[in-house]
Amino acid sequence: MLKGVTLRGLEVFEALAATGSVAGAAEATGLSQPAVSQQMRNLETALGTDLVDHGRRPMMLTPAGRSFLVRAQAVLAQLRMAQTELTVMDLSHLSVLNLGVIDDFDNDLTPRLVTMLAESMTRCRFKLITAPSHEITAAMRDLSLHLAVAASGGGVEEGITEYPLVRDPFIFVASRGTVAAHGSAEAVMQALPFLRYDRDQFIGRQIEAHMTRQGYNFPARFEIGAHLSLMTLAARGVGWAITTPLGYMRAARLHGELEAHPLPMQPFARTIALFAGADWADDVPRDVARMVRTLVDELVIAPALVQLPWLEGELRVLPV
Description:
With 320 residues, the chain is of the alpha/beta class. The chain contains twelve helices and 13 strands.
């Protein structure tokens, strides 16, 4: 690395960018506030430029800081991934594992996760299902799954332990150029049909509940169960939809025809969590949760923030 650029300095810079304050960075990294300030001075001296506007509160990144943050986060993500692959998983003692994963991760995380698990389970009978969250939750309740990664319903399930993984905020999507043509996302909502998720799904019910609380009542013209079909209708200009960054990134082949914006209403988010049955309340679910957090950060959140930088701080891995 460049002389004077340290791993600790990169971690402090990442924390300062996320929290906007020395106090917040100190809490996130476990360092004292003077130590945080010293790490930032050392890093900026080594790079020969200011990364943060120290005169503003909350602290804001300079243009150089925003550019360097993308590279620093990529470096840190790779190092965390390497550490995870080396130290986290030892599942050789398992004889059977039934795992369910939300289908939002089919494109990226699930193949990587399955590969890593398979390499750790040398004598294990392994079953994987991918499905919407409501189906995975039902499978957890009837004990056909041992572990599951899905959206949280917000309630406490008897005999099931929940490990929060990711905050996934809801966003507005429509065909590219639609918002500019109508003047605002709010105008699009009034001019074009609302493309709903199937209300039997967790995501559909959560969106409907929030819309009702906000006083919106749109005609029930489209209700679509398949996520990619819903995104395709939005990309073709049939209407507009509310989804999440995880859903948006899953529709990568449509990004040339889609645009995403902050919600033109009170923001809200869902939580993606790992669920474990009562018999699995040991190190295994904690290790798998840690692995999934690392994978999501590298494979989903980092690419999403490149495309949608306004989600910085909103789309994030949740603390252990």
